Amino acid sequence: MRGMVTSRLMGFFLLAAGYPSAGLAQDALQPYQLVRSLQLIQDRIAAGDHAAMPMQAKLLEMTDARLRSADAEDFKDPKNFRALLVYGMSGGNPATVEAAVSRATSLDAQNLAIAKGIINYLVGRPAGAIEVLKPIDPMTLPGDLGAFLALVKGSLIATEDPAGALALLDEARLLSPGTLVEEAALRRSVGIAVAQGDAARFALASTQYVERYLYSPYASQFADSFVSGVIALHMSISQDKLADITSMMDPEREKVIYLRIARRAAIDGLSDLSAFASARAEQGRDGNTNQGDPRALLYSSLSTVTSDTIEDVRTKLGKIDRSRLSDGDRALLDAAQTIAGEVVAPPASPVVENTAAADPTMGSPEAATAAPVSAESAAQAADASGLPPVEGAASEQPAVAPSGPAAAQADTPAPAPSADAPTIVPASAPAAPSSADKTDPTDAAMMKTRRQLDLIDQMLGAAPK
Question: How far apart, in whole angstroms, are the C-alpha atoms of residue 173 and residue 385?
Answer without folding.
Answer: 33
